[in-house]
Design goal:
883 residues; alpha+beta; Immunoglobulin-like; Zincin-like; Neutral Protease, domain 2; 5 domains; 5-stranded mixed sheet; 28 helices; globular; binds O-methyl-L-tyrosine; binds zinc ion
């Protein structure tokens, strides 16, 4: 009965325009899963009903991938082999009634599932990952998000090895069976798409708590982990309760089941997954404890716990009609988790971090071969679309709508959305319609943000007329062509701005006879628009795109003096930071030019003076100060060029760090010492800010690699009572030019943390991000380390991902060995874990902006990968890269 599957044909694209409602609904599914390493048996009983919106007589077509079919019965009768077909991942039953029950029994092999989609094993536990299309690897089903079904799941397993058996909803029955087996049955009262199904079986322990919702219901909260991680759950639990309260207060959203569970697993392709009532987390996004995790990890846990929890409404109660609408749930939920983190921590720093990430990584995606709109109109493999564009740019688009509506009306619009579409599978249009209805604004031009790929560029120029007392601001917008989209139309871009007068205060704005206060939002809708401000007595400095009010590149020909002025006086905290970044970019670009012209290097004194002012100023927000002291990353600098000179950028940035440290040694040292905390570690905002500032200063000092600083760093490494400080010191020692400095600390650290995979991930990462030329050898050596495995995504990211993404000079080595190593790994991962392979290869696809010798070497490796029998994931990316 095991239909033979022919070799898959070349993967085909799926188009949004071809969307059709499902031919059948599934009113109910009963799953009966008997867990076994290699022969898990899944019996599914589907209650199917024809969709009367579709034509009569359509066959039943179910998805199913890699399933061994053992039994199939329709309305209680076994089907003859001629009555159905299982081919190319589809099970087709040609003649079926309008309403019927279908029973299938299949066998699957979780222990050999290295793709980590569907049911798989992670360490000793069973777990699932069904988004986007993993459920079809568990049983036959219409695996699409617009089919919402009530699930009942019976799980049975060996009681000793798998005492804990979890699924969505509430447990309704449990019992013991023969042969040392037992079972638990779960029932989820909420109809859901199958991508939100989850199941876990393992020898787990839980941290438990409760939460009382705004209407007074008590919800049980459980975080399930392997016993050795029980001490690392407190922060996630705190974050969960904070998320639940925040969503009630901010969006009026209450939790809806009696129990909410989180499970931590070590092998996971992404960060976490919002399965109804049973979130499954990459352990890196849920476990945190001061001795072993850094402040950044604590904040990541808080953000991801929030993100997954918020999906309960934005994603689960209201889900997506099809995968083209992915940003409907992801963009909105990222916007929600960003706002949550901003409320829990330093809001300006959160905005700075998010924008810095968007402007480097998302802008690079938008400028490369895999650029796509926030709502794509076709794809080959949906797994390739869990991108920064869908998530982060999608969040910016929601943020712009929130800005356009204002706080109150945005809340009304989200209330309307949740109420109107509760229990439905919605589209981006549905969401925007709620915004339009509440605000009575016209969003038709705004919708282009969803359809057009590429980062718009605004070129701004100003003209002050002293006689007329006017300031004319001209804004020109242009969105560059992206693959498949040659011509772009003008977008509706909200530009929040002010004019800063010579005394450093915002001037009153008078536009078209209207008094607008000291800050306003300009609505740029045309390719070019001029705004004339009246009654301007002296030439102002424009502060544009405050708070980063739109995801665009803004060019304005600021002088260095103007930038230093904005750094000191802009009333908008974000723009103060951005002015500093612009000043630093100018200085670094100047160094790049000197390097390319083989001239002696000299750092712009204006940057040194601006930094001196920061170090000696009265800035009370230490978190923001730390951000302001940080130079733009190499990745961000690369974004400023059409043709990237990786080596010159690295050299310029290193030189600037050292020059700043030389010039401002005493200031950095003083600030380092002032911010030495006494008292117990806590991952709370003030302390995080202090550590961030202190370690930023230490980083500058270590650029000198002088004896005193080395001693200071060694002392911090030896005496730190928390991982943030210890790892900061270890990284500086391991990245020192002198390789001996890192050797002993690395050995000791590796030895004492060998039992903790999350810490070991850090240990692997910080060795291969070393900027010196020996990094590639180090990488090869570490790939042979017994603790390295290509089967664990966190390890792969920690080692290969970190090298490729954060060690640009070494990945782009002139001998091409970095490219070759990446291609080798990708080829192997193509067989093991296509999703990870397709993500990892991305830097190799960005060859167009490199110099020509590098282009050729990168393309040669892409061609080499193309020779393989590729998964759809990798196929799609490689074809785009070589198109
Ligand atoms: N919805 C999850 C992301 C996610 C997507 C795919 C996964 O496995 C292939 C896992 C998680 C989120 O946004 O958190
Ligand atoms: Zn999400």
């Amino acid at each position: 009965m095991n239909a033979i599957q022919p070799e898959a044909a070349q993967p085909q694209a799926i188009y949004l325009k071809d969307y059709q409602a499902p031919a059948f609904w599934v009113d109910q599914v009963k799953l009966d899963v008997a867990l076994d390493d290699h022969q898990t048996r899944v019996i599914s009983t589907l209650s199917l009903r024809r969709n009367d919106q579709r034509e009569a007589g359509l066959p039943l077509v179910l998805n199913g991938q890699g399933l061994t079919l053992k039994r199939i019965e329709l309305a209680g009768q076994p089907l003859a082999e001629t009555d159905y077909q299982y081919q190319e991942d589809l099970l087709t039953v040609a003649r079926v009634p309008d309403q019927f029950t279908l029973v299938t029994e299949v066998e699957i092999d979780p222990a050999n599932n290295t793709a980590l989609e569907g049911l798989y094993k992670s360490n000793t536990m069973f777990c699932t990952q069904c988004e986007a299309e993993g459920f079809r690897r568990i049983t036959f089903f219409p695996d699409r998000p617009d089919v919402l079904t009530r699930f009942t799941t019976r799980i049975e397993a060996d009681q000793q090895r798998f005492p804990i058996l979890l699924s969505n909803g509430n447990p309704i029955e449990r019992g013991e069976l023969d042969n040392g087996r037992h079972f638990v049955t779960w029932e989820d009262p909420f109809p859901k798409p199958c991508y939100l199904f989850a199941l876990v079986g393992g020898n787990l322990q839980a941290v438990k708590d409760t939460f009382t919702t705004m209407s007074g219901r008590e919800v049980a909260l459980e975080i399930w982990v392997e016993p050795e991680n029980l001490h690392k759950c407190d922060h996630a639990m705190r974050s969960l309760k904070a998320s639940m309260r925040w969503d009630e207060q901010t969006y009026g959203r209450e939790y809806d089941l009696d129990i909410f569970m989180i499970v931590a697993v070590n092998d996971f392709n992404m960060g976490a997954m919002e399965n109804k009532g049973l979130n499954i987390f990459n352990s890196a996004c849920v476990l945190a404890e001061p001795k072993s995790e850094t402040d950044a990890a604590f904040q990541r846990v808080e953000g991801v716990v929030g993100h997954e929890y918020f999906h309960n409404w934005s994603g689960n109660r209201v889900t997506c009609r099809d995968w083209f609408q992915l940003s409907l749930k992801e963009g909105f939920t990222v916007y929600r988790d960003q706002s949550f983190s901003a409320d829990m921590n330093s809001a300006p720093v959160k905005r700075i971090e998010d924008v810095a990430m968007l402007r480097t990584a998302q802008f690079a995606e938008d400028a490369g071969p895999t650029a796509h709109p926030v709502r794509p109109d076709h794809y080959i493999e949906i797994n390739n679309f869990y991108t920064l564009t869908i998530y982060e740019k999608g969040a910016e688009v929601v943020r712009m709508m929130a800005e356009l509506l204002g706080r109150e009306r945005f809340r009304q619009a989200t209330d309307l959305y949740f109420e109107r579409h509760d229990g439905e599978a919605a589209t981006v249009e549905d969401f925007v319609a709620c915004m339009a209805e509440v605000s009575e604004l016209d969003f038709s031009q705004f919708m282009r943000w969803y359809h057009q790929a590429g980062t718009p560029k605004i070129e701004a120029s100003g003209h002050f007329d002293a006689d007329a007392r006017t300031y004319q601001l001209t804004l020109r917008q242009h969105t560059p062509a992206t693959p498949g989209q040659a011509d772009k139309l003008p977008l509706h871009i909200p530009v929040r701005m002010g004019l800063v007068g010579p005394n450093g205060h915002d001037l009153p704005l008078e536009l078209n006879g209207e008094q607008l206060g000291t800050e306003t939002v300009l609505h740029l809708r045309e390719a070019e628009q001029t705004f004339t401000f009246h009654n301007i007595a002296a030439e102002p400095v424009p502060s544009l795109l405050r708070g980063f009010s739109a995801p665009v590149k803004l060019a304005f020909d600021y002088s260095r003096e103007q930038l230093a002025f904005l750094m000191a006086h802009d009333s908008d905290g974000f723009n103060r930071w951005d002015a500093g970044q612009r000043l630093a970019v100018l200085a670094l670009q100047h160094l790049v030019n000197q390097i390319q012209a083989n001239e002696p290097l000299q750092l712009d004194p204006a940057l040194i003076e601006a930094t001196r002012t920061l170090l000696n100023g009265e800035m009370t927000d230490k978190a923001v100060l730390a951000e302001m002291l940080r130079l733009p990353s190499e990745a961000y600098l690369a974004e400023q060029y059409e043709q990237v000179d990786v080596d010159a950028i690295h050299k310029a940035r290193s030189f600037a760090r050292k020059a700043l440290a030389d010039a401002l040694y005493d200031d950095f040292l003083r600030l380092y010492k002032v911010n030495q905390r006494v008292g117990d570690y806590a991952p709370e905002a003030n302390q995080i800010a202090e550590r961030s500032l202190k370690n930023t200063c230490l980083g500058y000092l270590m650029a000198r690699e002088d004896e005193a600083t080395i001693a200071l760093t060694q002392e911090q490494f030896n005496c730190a009572d928390n991982m943030t400080d210890q790892r900061a010191a270890l990284t500086l020692l391991a990245h020192a030019e002198d390789p001996r400095l890192g050797a002993e600390p690395l050995r000791r650290f590796g030895e004492s943390w060998a039992h903790d995979p999350l810490v070991m991930d850090q240990w692997f990462s910080l060795q291969v991000t070393r900027p010196q030329a020996d990094a590639l050898d180090r990488l090869k050596m570490l790939m042979a380390h017994p603790a390295f495995s290509l089967k664990n995504p966190n390890r792969v990211r920690a080692l290969i991902g970190a090298f490729v993404g954060q060690n640009r000079v070494n990945f782009h080595r002139q001998d091409g060995q970095g490219y070759q190593l990446l291609a080798d790994v990708v080829i192997e991962l193509n067989r093991l874990n296509p999703q990870i392979a397709a993500r990892l290869v991305i830097p190799l696809t960005r060859w167009k902006r490199m110099t020509s010798e590098r282009q050729d070497m990168m393309k040669a490796q892409l061609e080499r990968i193309r020779q393989e029998s590729l998964s759809p994931d990798l196929f799609e990316i490689i074809e785009k890269a070589l198109a």
